[in-house]
Every structure is written in structure tokens, then in C-alpha cells.
Amino acid sequence: MTQWATAQGGLDGGHVRTSWGSATDRGRVRALNEDSLLAAPPVFLVADGMGGHHAGDLASRVAVEEFSRLVGRDVATADEVHACFARVAARLRAEVEPGRTVGTTVAGAAVADHDGAAYWLVFNVGDSRVYRWSGGVLDQISVDHSLVQEYVDAGHLTSEEARVHPERHVITRAVGTGSVPEPDYWMLPATAHDRLLVCSDGLTSELEDVDLARVLASTPDPEAAARALVDAALGAGGHDNVTAVVVDVLADTGAPDLETTLEPLPPSRPTPEGLS
Length: 276
Known about the structure:
single chain, disordered N terminus, Phosphatase 2c, domain 1, six-stranded antiparallel sheet, five-stranded antiparallel sheet, alpha+beta, 26% helix, 7 helices, disordered C terminus
């Protein structure tokens, strides 16, 4: 069933109304689903845990639990989101046995307020992704923290070569594997009729962007779209856990029409009070 929610307040009399749906599957190879998701305004995210049996699923679940503290609010700030990342990292250090490496990717978007208009605060650590489908165009908003992405950025690989590179699953950042999480952030106007896709790499390792765009364009209901994407990944092999969250913006939000160059926020991290 499609879920609906309205987030109001703090937006100068405006509001953002969203419809969303989600789907997840352990895939055709893995014995355990180490992906977790959160789809409850004002935050939508996917976490892909690592660390082996009873560790990766713990890590992704901890991420969902900490970000769930934001659920029910009208909007979330960058400081509040960053505090969630810090709490996830602290809990993983405290709850995992010494000597064991456990971590999780976290990618998603939270409803935020900027100058009285609704925006998406997009965040990412790792190689789970956030896309936007708008005006018939699919844009990848997040940038993978992975070895092959570094090769692409350096001009050593093309995007096509990166998809089949033997080190394509090696990530360079995760929450819990270092002392301080290092998320990237983007602010994106929440424009009416936009659609966000948040997904784990189990989806993007099986499907190309053209496949994602085809489903997002042809399946109006967000829950049906999420399910169709996961089913397509399973049909393509399902070699990993696969998770998709699809979120639609349904009403005018007061944000400008998006003809915007997508740039990350400055590299300095939010420093909520009480965090070092």
C-alpha cells in the first residue's frame, strides 16, 4: 500500500506532501539480508551493513534506529542528521566485539527548510545511492565512496569499465569503520512532481541507469516502482541484498524550479553542540 504523509510548519505557510514506497530482498545468493531501510517523514534512507553474519545486519539496523529519532518532525537540520551519524558510529564501536570490523553505508534524504522553502538534505556515506527523477531526466545526486569511483574521478576508468571492475565493491568510507563518520551533504530544492530513489548497491550493480529510469518513468505508484526495481534486480541475477525506497513530492513546496547545478555542501562538516 502506498503511504502518505504531510510535513508542515517552519516553511512559511507552505508544506511538502510526499507519497512513498519501499521494497527489500536478500537476493538469490546471500543467506541474510544485511540491508535496512527507513521511510518515514522527514527522513528516507537505506543502510547496507557489512561485517558478516549477525554484524552487517546489526550495523544497518543501528543506523535505522538512530535516524528514527527524527521521525515525526516537520523538518530535519544538517546538525541533527550529522548527530545521527555520530551516534551510529559510537554505538557500533561500543556494541561490537573488539577486533571485529563492522560498518554500514547510509544514503538518504531528509526534508529540510531553507529560507522558508522545502528542500531535500541529501546525505551519503559509502556506495548506496540517491537519485532524482525530474522532468524526464535521471540524475545521480550522491557520489560513491568507492575505489572504482576514485579511479573514474582520476580518469583511469570509464563509468562503463567501473561497472565490471573486479574491485567495484571496495568502498572507501563507511559508518563505524573509522573514528569519525564522514558523510557528504547536498541541499536540493524539493520541487513538485520530483521523484527520489534511494537504493543499496544491490540494485545498481544489477541494473544500469537506463533501467532505473525506465521503471521510474513508467510506474506512477511509488511502492509499485520500488517493488518493480527490486524484482528487476532479482531477475538480473540478484547477487546481493537489494533495497529501494521511492519518494514522490506531490505539491508545491515554495522551492525554486530546479535548473540547479548539483554541488555538495562545503567540505566542513556540521558540528552539532556536544560533538567533537
